[in-house]
Prior knowledge:
The chain has helices spanning 11-14, 35-38, 70-73, 90-120, 124-142, and strands at 16-19, 24-26, 30-32, 41-46, 51-55, 58-59, 62-63. With 152 residues, the protein is of the alpha+beta class. It has two domains: 3-88, no CATH class; 93-147. The strands form two sheets. A five-stranded antiparallel beta sheet has the order 3-2-1-5-4. α4 (90-120) packs antiparallel against α5. The protein is elongated and about 65 Å long. 11% of the residues are buried.
Amino acid sequence: MEKNLCNKCGMCCKEIPVDFTRRIIYRDGIQPLTTAFEELLVPVEEKEYVTICKCKFLEDNTCTNPEKPQICSDFPYSPLAFLPEDCGYTGEVFLKKEKLKQQVRKLKEEIIHYNALIEVTKDKTEQRQYQRIIDSHEAFIDKYKVYGSKDW
């Protein structure tokens, strides 16, 4: 993504929701909490299931980390990123999420098609091949079910 979309509000580094018990970051979609990233965090507030943290290298809405980790440089890379209000990347992430939704819808259409082929095909080998494709498509769609992919 183009980094010139950042409006330097610092919110992505001031309010990082983390579930330390499950080792999950709710920042750029849902990501595993690595030890390296955990070392950057300063807990600010305890909420029901998460701890709101800030980055210890954030000063005047600017990163001062001389060894900025890739996870920070790439933010936001996920079309499912949780962005702060008025983030400069909101439009870009919206477009990426819409493309992901289109991809899921296309896979659902193909599942319908392959299910129909299974019904009319007598060859068991072809039926198994179609079922493998269906299973692969469904596995992809299931990766995003926490985001509502079943309803896309």
